[in-house]
Amino acid sequence: MNKNKGFTLIELVIVIVILGILAATAAPKFIDLTGDARESVMAGLEGSMQSAVEISHAKALIEGETATSGEIQIGSDFYALANGWPIAVSGTGVTTDGFGIKDLLEIDTTADTGDFEITSESGSTIIFTHPDAEDKLTCIVQFDNAVDAETRPDITTDFSGC
């Protein structure tokens, strides 16, 4: 009577083939999480921007700064407002050299080391992108100034290229 206990070579090969098939189908789902991480970082920027807009607008209302141009002071810094809302780009039409939304959020846009890049910046619009985005035109958070006191700034996103 042969009472050898163990696996045959064929059984071991079948198990290895099955494990290989499972690894080949499951690995891509776990390997490429960088796009999701970039998208999450950009969504975090959008949320921070929304919060900063609401808080600074509340402070502007309390201080009566709802004119076409104005400013609020936070700490020792002045932040520029348009119609009681924070503006995209620093210091247009304020009594001091007020900062824009980038400075309000303390966003680091330093070349090669910053958390975000600015792909477009004008008097009323600023567009941020992730420095490692696959497509810098479609991994963005865009901030547009408020057009009047009743309309909040427009914050739009496109994460399709992250």
What is the structure about, briefly put?
With 162 residues, the protein is an alpha+beta fold.
Chain-wise SSE layout:
Elements: H1 9-31, H2 34-63, E1 69-74, E2 77-82, E3 85-86, H3 101-104, E4 117-121, E5 125-129, E6 140-144, E7 154-158
Antiparallel strand pairs: 1-2, 2-3, 4-5, 5-6, 6-7
Protein name: Type II secretion system protein
Pfam family, one: N_methyl
InterPro entries: N_methyl_site (IPR012902), Pilin-like (IPR045584)
Strand ordering within the main sheet: 4-5-6-7
Backbone shape: rod-shaped
Query: What summary fits the major beta sheet?
Result: 4 strands, antiparallel
Q: What is the string of SSEs from the N terminus onward?
A: HHEEEHEEEE
**Structural class label:** alpha+beta
- Amount of helix: 25-40%
Task: Evaluate the radius of gyration.
Answer: 26 Å
Total of DSSP H or I helical runs spanning 4+ residues: 3
Oligomeric state of shown chains: single chain
Instruction: State the total count of DSSP E strands.
Output: 7
Uncertain residue ranges: none
Pfam families: N_methyl (PF07963)
Protein name: Type II secretion system protein
Organism: Thalassotalea fonticola
